[in-house]
Structures are given as C-alpha cells and as structure tokens.
TrEMBL record, chains A, B:
This is LacI family transcriptional regulator. Keywords: DNA-binding, Repressor, Transcription, Transcription regulation. The keyword Transit peptide does not apply. PROSITE patterns: HTH_LACI_1, HTH_LACI_2. The keyword Repressor applies.
Length: 343, 343
DNA sequence: TTGTAAGCGTTATCAC
DNA sequence: GTGATAACGCTTACAA
C-alpha cells in the first residue's frame, strides 16, 4: 500500500528511529545519514502519517479556531488576524468550519483530542455553552463574538464580544433621533437560541420603548430560511415595504442583510436615504463598497481578534480568564437621513 | 489523561472489542450490553480518538474538497452543492482550505493518507499540476474550475471547467460590439502562474486583436497585492481612470473586483453605465444585488459542482476520467450600454 | 551516532 | 454474542 517509515529505513539502510529523528529534526544524525534518508524520502515520495504521529505526540504547539459558518464575510478579517498572530508566536493554526447546530462543542472536543491542541477559539453561533462543555474540553478556550450564559462560571473560559443589545439600541436610537418613527427591523431568528441577532433585536425594542414609540410586529421580519443573507434581506425588505407604506427607515442586524434590503428599496424605484434610511451591523467591506455606502455599527474586528488570541495565550500560560466587551462604532456614510429632510 | 475505550470497557464490564462494535454499529451486541456501554460512554464523556481510528480503518466512505481560498464567494455555492450530493450518496465530506501556493498537492496527499479518502476534489488555484502529482495521490481526483497542463495525461484526472479565455473574449467582444474602443481591464496576475485570471486576460487581448483595436498596456491594471478583491478592484479602477480619461468601459476578471471598480466610478461622480460600462466575471450574488446590478459572465456553478461530484464517483467505480467544459452565460443587467448612447 | 522495542487508542480477525 | 490479540505507522526512551 502506502509507503511507510519502514520503507525509508530499509531503502536508506538505517534504522526506523534514525529516519524519525532526521525527519523531525530532533536528536542528531550524521550528515551522510541525513542525505541517505532524505534521498529515500524523495525517491519513494514518503509522507508521514499524521494519525500515527498525533497518536504519540504530546505537545503540538497548535491551536484551533472553530468557526460557525466560515463563509460569513465578517469573520474573515478576524480569522486572518488570528492566523498571523498565531504564526508570530510560533504556533500552528488549525482552521475548521462548523455547520451543525449545537454540536460545536463536540467537534471542539474531538479536535482537541485529535490534534493535541493546547488551546481553542470558538467564533460565531449562539450562547448555549455549559460549564460541562468547558470542563470536558480540557484546554483553554476563548469565545469570540459570543459568550456563555451568565450562570456559567467565568473562570472556565475567556470571551471577547461587543454588547449586541446596546449597540443595536444605538443604531435604532440614532434613527429615532433623526426623527424616524416607523422603523423596520430585519433579523435572523435562529431557532429559539440566544444569538447576537436576538440580542440586537432586544436593543431595537428597547430603543423604541425608551423613546415612547410603540413596538409594531408588522415592522419586524425574521422568517428564517436557508437563503443567503443577501436574499434574506431582500425578501424581508420586500415584505416590510408591502406591509408598511409609512416606513421611513430600516435597521438590519447584519450588513449582508442590509445590502439585500437596500437592493429591494432601490429596485422599487425608491431612494436611499431620501425615501428610506438604511443601517446595518458588523462593518463588512460590501457595505462600504455598496452604492450608496451603508451606515453600520462597525465591530472592531481586528482588535477583537487580537484580544482573543492574547487571552488564549495568557490562559495557556496559566493566567486567569478575561472577559472583554468592546465598543462598536456607528459609521455614518450617508444612508440615513433626518426625517424632516425626507421628500 | 483522556478517557479511552479501555475505560469504557472496564466501567461497563465488557471487552474492548464489544465496546468498539457497539460504537460502530458493526457486528452485533445484545441490547443489554449496548445499554451498559452507552451508559458508560455518557458517564465518562468518552470520545473516540480519530487518529487511532483512521490508523486502522481501511474504507472510510469519505471524500474531500480542497479549496484554494475558501473565502472566495464564488466557491460557496459549489461547495454547498457538493456537500449535499456527497451526503446523498452516503459519503462524508471533508472540507479543507488551502492558502499555501503550489503546496496544494502535498496537502492533498496528506489528507488522502490521513483520512483514508476514496476521492478528492481540488478547486481554485492554478494549472500547475503534474503527472507525478496525480500518481502520488493514489485516489481518483477531480479538478474544478482549473485543469492541468495539456501535456499531462488526461486519464490521470477528471476536470470540470469553463473556457476562461473564450468567455472573457465574449465579455470584451460584447463591449466592443457596443461601440467601445477604450476598454479598461482589471485582473489579478498571480505570480507567473497560469490561472483562470491570466487566461481571461488572454481572451481580452484576443478580442481587441480580432476587432482591430490596438492593445494598450495603459488600460490594464494587474498590480498584485494582498488586498481584498473589493479593495483591489477599487484601487485598480482609480488608477485606470486617472491614466485614461477616454476610457468608456471596463472588464474585471472577477465580480468582486467589478464591484470595487464600480464603487470607484461612482465615487468619482461618474455614472454606470452612462459614463462607464462595467462587466464582471463569475456570477456571484453581490454583483446581482449591487446597484446598479452588474453585467457578468456567469459560470454555471451548480452544474459544475454536480458534474465534478459525478465524475468523482464515476472514477471511484472504476470508470474512465472525463473532461467537461461548460459554457458560461453573459448576463446583461444594465451596467453596459452602447457607446452611441453615452452622454 | 544509531538501533531496538514499547507503547499510543483503535479496529479487525479470530477463537470461544 | 463476546473477548483476546495482533496489527496500524509512528515517536521516544533506552540500550548499544
């Protein structure tokens, strides 16, 4: 079958462990031996079996990032930053995508065991982690963009987040202060889970409440399907417009949805912001390159990524866990306008 | 340390192999035994070690997709389709991202060995595969969106592609037939490699040639940086506009670049398509949701994915390799206009 | 400097 | 139905 370390040993006329030593750089071997071994390796196109390796190895200097839906453009900057910072510290990074709901911790445990990880970062998804989860993991764990329930002992994990509720309060309040009263809301209700989106929705409701504007379910679209974010935003916005002729603004709980919503508005022959103001959330590139550029609540993605990796390495060195809440920035790019200026 | 199959065997009072059998569903075990084993598994939170598993296992019913830069939105539809089709056939799918240049085949070999794959799909990247590569792999291999050099024996691999040169000829020719003569070109020159982008560039040049329009290097922007596609398109377009006041159209060799280019145009106070016509390539969602929606050469992503997976399973059943070239569709959405209509 | 041999945790092949 | 036991390919003491 496949060529193994034995074949290399045989061909180069040395012992198995010598081959292993040469390949791993550990221990010493005479230059001549090295030559012979390497020659055999190339001749037979030998590739070491990682399973056999990991089975024995203890320390791997590897950490992992588990991303819930890696295709989310918001995560890309973060991942990139984490990759760089990890390399810089001389560690390897294992990047893994997760789709399955609620299974992320199982996959995390699996990964920790398989790869002998010394730490792990979990990003995306919901807030459904339990104390057991962290205990089972066995290695330091940092949650990024999500956290665990307040009941969970905060010494078991670190977290780097924003205050989703407060930030979307900020977005909604901004529109209200601009004079808007009929404000649509588009968000992704993912099952009954507590997610960043549901928190943002709470912020939307609180902003209405505190400003004395009645909450109107007709202004909310959150029917969850498996469509893409763009398509989702587009369809939800179409619905909202059909149901609410008096709507003057919309807050979308993700920029991709905001883009879809914007397209829906423009395709109806309406203008942004003159007819309807639009604000998104996250701060991804598309919102910036869209025309018109869309206002958004921009998360400090790079800083968050840096903090996450810092927190992880701190934990790996035995330091305490940390829980950072960053502040997001309301970027005004012109897709929202005062109601008095509406035509 | 970690809890192993032995612990489960001990706790549940059965033999190791019985535990293995219960967990794998293979072989038989009495309901009572099953109960006991499962109870122990849950109590100790046992997770089987994949390395040890893969070391022994022969048939895994698993195939893999190696994607060169998984963040490329064009690949996402394809990956999704491949995932579904794979599950449908009762196989597992291993999705893996590759960044390293030219190392994709090494990673592929590694993956094949580690996971005992029975087949692999490679998407993205360049055309640099050799005969040796496929021979070393040891399992059926399908190239998706790229192919190997013509010198490589076509019985060694399957491929599903479009004719990048011809398709971008189509795009450029379309603009020329609309009356454009000063047509900008934005593409990503990735080292000296032969990539879809370089082929598309060839198509651009041939269209000019066959229509008797002189090729002007000033109209080409391909300075390769590590920027994102949007940023890249934006900056390249800024350059082009600065250098060519008489440019009336631009062809971008990827939709993300086209979006960046469009933003650059609009941010200069120019209009699309009245002042400058824009056409992209690939057919991703953002181009559709952009405002104005962008014309593009749309690749039949789903069909291509289906063909790739079909080809792979065919090979796995001992059938011959296949080499399919799909035709892309020129989508006219209004971002290109006849020159006579230019204001 | 090099080789021998004992595991790593699992599965597969047998006997029972 | 179930339980020993021999691999799987490698790393790592330890011995030479």
């Amino acid at each position: 079958m496949s060529v193994t370390i034995k074949d290399i040993a045989k061909l180069s006329g040395v012992g198995i462990s010598t081959v292993s030593r040469v390949l791993n750089g550990s221990g010493f071997a005479s230059p001549v031996t090295k030559q012979k071994v390497m020659a055999a390796v190339h001749e037979l196109n030998y590739i070491p079996n990682n399973n056999a390796r990991n089975l024995k190895r203890t320390q791997t200097k590897t950490i992992a990032v588990l991303v819930k839906s890696i295709t989310n453009p918001f995560f890309q900057k973060m991942i990139h930053t984490i990759e760089q910072k990890t390399m810089l510290r001389g560690y390897c990074l294992e990047l893994r995508n997760v789709n399955s709901n609620g299974q992320e911790m199982l996959i995390a445990q699996q990964e920790v065991m398989d790869k002998n990880l010394c730490g792990i970062i979990l990003m995306g998804g919901g807030f459904e982690y339990t104390e057991e989860d962290f205990k089972h993991l066995g290695v330091p764990c940092v949650l990024l963009t999500v956290s665990a329930d307040d009941k969970v002992n905060k010494d078991l994990y670190s977290s780097v987040i924003i205050d989703d509720e407060a930030e979307n309060f900020k977005a909604t309040d901004y529109l209200i202060k601009l004079g808007h009263k009929r404000i649509g809301c588009i968000y992704n209700a993912y099952g009954q889970l507590k997610t960043p989106n549901t928190l943002r929705f709470e912020g939307y409701k609180r902003a209405l409440l505190e400003n004395g504007i009645p909450f109107d379910p007709l202004l909310v679209s959150s029917f969850n399907t498996s469509q893409s974010g763009y398509e989702f935003g587009f369809n939800m916005m179409k619905n909202l417009m059909m149901r609410n002729k008096d709507m003057t603004a919309v807050v979308a709980m993700a920029d991709i949805m905001a883009v879809g919503a914007a397209k829906a508005i423009l395709s109806e022959g309406l203008r942004i912001p003159e007819d309807i103001s639009v604000i998104g959330f996250d701060g991804i590139e598309v919102a910036e390159y869209y025309s018109p550029a869309l206002d958004t609540i921009s998360q400090p993605a790079e800083q968050m990524a840096v903090s996450a990796i810092d927190a992880l390495f701190a934990m790996m060195q035995g330091e305490k866990t940390s829980h950072i809440v960053y502040e997001a920035v309301l970027l005004k790019r012109g897709s929202c306008i005062g109601l008095t200026n509406h035509s």
